[in-house]
Each structure stands twice: as structure tokens, then as C-alpha cells.
Design brief:
Order of helices and strands: EHEHEHEHHEEEEHHHHHHHHHHHH
Number of helices: 17
Shape: elongated
Radius of gyration: 32 Å
Number of strands: 8
Helix content: 40-55%
Distance between the termini: 75 Å
Strand order of the largest sheet: 1-2-3
């Protein structure tokens, strides 16, 4: 195993989001590519917002995406604990050492005082930073502040006139001047270390060799039944460019192709159309059964699937999902296509009313619909094959072909000009609903 060691360290303050998933993926890919170690730890120092529920959501999401971790929460390791709130004694020890060595100090400034100083600096056109008021407090002043009930924060004493530089794997050589930073808070007044302090201690103590940061402000993870393979593929291409033109990768292919030197310097742009395109590619390969399970929660949401399913329900819903396979890019889109099966009344597709009525007012439409209605009433069983044979018989009886037969039947039953296989649609609607709609087709022509 390589000496490379990376980490994903999310804050459990809400649902797992795309930015976090992308950061986790890049770390995981790099670790797997270099045969290194991928660590998962939880940064829960935001006590007011952190929850175990969010932590479980993060872990479940990583597992769903196929990203296993080698060290950290649940799996253990030699550098635990792996939650920041369980490492407070370690942080206190380091903080005290910094105080003893004069590299940090207690700051008793109130938020109001800090705001006033910051405003004065901005009024003078200066970059706001801490003015060093508490850098050299005497014991008498400290005692006065304590008597007033002030609780100190701890600030790191940032040296002046220093240049800090490092090599970034994406942006190259980066440097900044210490004079523009100011002494910043490393421990809050409640004794909890701030994120930027705790994370550095954790990285050092756990032997992290490379840090890949997340892009901020990316959209929340779409909660629509997207496939994990598609989401991983999409996240990998979110700011990383493979050498060739290929855009679909298996997990193993991603590991082999991934490299940090092909990660873009510019912030990644979340492109929902790209995600839909990739997801549609993977959905085409799903079995009818898997497609049914993917769409089922959304069908339940609109009341088309009961909570308790019998085999007839499963068969009907499986045919429904299969029928619309080529019309949906992700699971939740099934909801946009099932309105035609709900209720007894047909509504003409909005924006196309005139052309739809024109189909039903064609001279031959009543003949076709009458023949189809009579044939349908005689059937004991309706299946796609039976419907196909029935429509073929209507063509023979009426001496009409093509759109002159298919179009009026589709419009009368669904209120739409176009759609998936008509044989499936009739089967899904069922005999009674079809007969009812055909008997009331006159309402659509007005």
C-alpha cells in the first residue's frame, strides 16, 4: 500500500450534497488510483446543527455511491476517535501548548467591539482583520474582563512579514502574505475549537498526506432516484476531464483514468442536463424489475401504487415503467407521465387543444373509434398483443391505415397526440376505463 493518505471529513449538519459527494469521490479515486488510504471522519464541532441523523445520511450516501473507506467512523483504525467532539481532550492539549509557548492568547473582545473595529477599518478602505487589542493584556485587565462576565476566545498569534507558500495539485504554486491575515480565533468562547483549527490537528495526527477540498456552493444532491453509477460518473466529470472523448466510465475505469493534473482550475458548474443525459444512458440498461423498483417510491407518492402490493399490482406497475422507459431520464420523471391513468376524465394536452380536436373531428374518426370500441367490448382479456391484433382488425374493417387509426384512438384515450406504445397504453388503462373514455369522447370535441 502506498504512503498516500487522504480524507473526507464532512460536517453532519444536513443532507449529503453534490459538493460533498464530489469532494469525497475525488479523494476516493486518488486513494484507489495510488493504492493509498481513504479516511472518513466526522467534523461535528458545530454543536447546534450537527446531528447523528445527518451522519448516518452521509455514510449511507457514500455506501450507495460505492465509496468504501479504509479507516474512520465504524471501521476504526489507529488514529481515532474519528468524531471531532470525541477528540476535545486532544485539542485542549495542543491549545494549552500554544498558550504556554506564547503562540496563542486569550481574547476578551466582545462581538460588538469587534464589529465596531471592523467597520472603522472598512470606512478607511482597509481590509478588515483583528487589530490585536488583546495580544498583550496584563493580569489586571484580564481580571476586569472576567469580572464583567466575558468569556475569552483563543486566537493564534500570526507572525508579521511572513510569506506562506505551498504547491497545489490543481493550481500550482500558491502563496500569501501573513500581514493580510490577522490573529484569528482557533477556539470559541465555549471551549470548542473552530473547524480550521481542529481539521489541521486531525490531519497532522492522522498522517494525512494530501488534502482535496470541496468546491463550495454546488447544488444539493438531486433526490430523484438517480442511479449511483450515473451520479458517480457525473461527479467525476464535474471539473475533471479524461484524456479522450469517452464520457461513460465504470468505477474501475474511473480509478485507472483519474489524475489530479486534469482537474480544472475554474469552479465546477452543475449541469442538470448533463446529469440527466448520463443517467438516461445507465437507465437504458436496467432490467424491467430494477426500473420498477427505481420508480416505485415516486409512483407511491402520486397515489398510483398502493403501500401493499400484490402480484397483479407489481405486473401492472412493471409494465407501466417499461412503457415509459425511453421517456424518463431519472426515476422521479415517471410522475410526469402517469396522469393519463388517473381518474375517468380525459384532458387535452395543454397548448395543443386545437390540433387534438382536429384529429377527433376528422371525418373518419367516429368510424374508427366506434369500431375499436365494439371490438374492445368483446374482449375477455387485454394484453399488448391482443390490443395489437384488435387495432389491426379495425384497420381491416375500416379500410384505413396508419395515423387515421392510431391517432384518434390515442387522443380519445389519453388526450395526447404522441406517446409510448399504444398497445401498452390501452392495456394499462384496462377495458372498463377505455370503454368509458370512448363513450364520452364527444366531450373532447367541444
Amino acid at each position: 500500500m502506498s504512503s498516500m493518505k487522504v480524507r473526507f471529513a464532512p460536517s453532519p449538519t444536513g443532507p449529503f450534497h453534490i459538493g460533498g459527494a464530489r469532494s469525497a469521490l475525488f479523494n476516493w479515486l486518488l486513494a484507489r488510483k495510488e493504492k493509498g488510504t481513504f479516511v472518513l471522519r466526522i467534523e461535528d464541532t458545530d454543536l447546534a446543527r450537527s446531528t447523528r441523523e445527518s451522519e448516518e445520511n452521509i455514510k449511507a450516501s457514500l455506501q450507495w455511491l460505492g465509496m468504501n473507506w479504509d479507516e474512520g467512523i465504524d471501521v476504526g483504525g489507529n488514529n481515532g476517535p474519528y468524531r471531532q467532539t470525541e477528540r476535545l481532550d486532544l485539542y485542549k492539549e495542543v491549545t494549552q501548548r500554544l498558550l504556554d509557548e506564547g503562540k496563542a492568547y486569550e481574547c476578551y473582545c466582545t462581538p460588538e467591539e469587534l464589529d465596531a473595529v471592523r467597520q472603522e477599518q472598512m470606512d478607511r478602505g482597509e481590509t478588515p482583520k483583528y487589530n490585536g487589542h488583546c495580544q498583550h493584556l496584563d493580569e489586571e485587565t484580564k481580571a476586569k474582563y472576567i469580572a464583567e462576565g466575558r468569556k475569552p476566545t483563543i486566537r493564534l498569534r500570526v507572525p508579521l512579514n511572513k510569506t506562506y507558500a505551498f504547491d497545489d495539485m490543481v493550481r500550482g504554486h500558491v502563496s500569501f502574505e501573513s500581514n493580510g491575515v490577522g490573529d484569528f480565533v482557533i477556539v470559541k468562547s465555549d471551549g470548542i475549537p473552530v473547524y480550521n483549527f481542529a481539521v489541521v490537528m486531525d490531519d497532522h495526527m492522522m498522517g494525512i498526506t494530501h488534502v482535496i477540498r470541496a468546491e463550495e456552493h454546488l447544488s444539493n444532491t438531486p433526490r430523484q432516484g438517480y442511479l449511483p453509477e450515473a451520479l458517480v460518473n457525473f461527479l467525476a466529470l464535474l471539473g475533471w476531464a479524461p484524456e479522450g472523448e469517452e464520457e461513460f466510465f465504470t468505477q474501475d475505469e474511473l480509478i485507472q483514468a483519474f489524475s489530479m493534473d486534469r482537474v480544472a482550475k475554474n469552479p465546477a458548474v452543475f449541469d442538470i442536463d448533463k446529469l440527466n443525459h448520463i443517467n438516461f444512458h445507465y437507465m437504458k440498461n436496467l432490467s424491467d424489475e430494477d426500473l420498477f423498483h427505481l420508480c416505485l417510491p415516486h409512483l407511491k407518492e402520486v397515489g398510483l401504487a398502493p403501500d401493499s402490493l400484490n402480484q397483479a399490482d407489481i405486473d401492472w406497475l412493471t409494465l407501466l415503467c417499461s412503457t415509459f422507459r425511453d421517456h424518463i431520464s431519472y426515476g422521479a420523471q415517471i410522475k410526469d407521465h402517469v396522469g393519463m391513468f388517473m381518474g375517468e376524465t380525459v384532458f387535452l394536452e395543454e397548448g395543443h387543444e386545437e390540433e387534438l380536436r382536429a384529429v377527433l373531428n376528422e371525418e373518419t374518426a367516429p368510424t374508427v373509434l366506434g369500431a375499436f370500441r365494439n371490438a374492445l367490448a368483446e374482449l375477455d382479456e387485454i394484453t399488448p398483443d391482443v390490443v395489437k391484433a384488435t387495432i389491426k382488425a379495425v384497420m381491416k374493417e375500416t379500410a384505413l391505415k396508419g395515423k387515421f387509426v392510431f391517432m384518434p384512438i390515442r387522443v380519445a384515450l389519453t388526450g395526447q397526440m404522441h406517446g409510448p406504445d399504444l398497445n401498452n397504453i390501452v392495456t394499462l388503462l384496462g377495458k372498463e376505463k377505455c370503454l368509458h373514455r370512448l363513450d364520452n369522447v364527444s366531450a373532447l370535441t367541444k
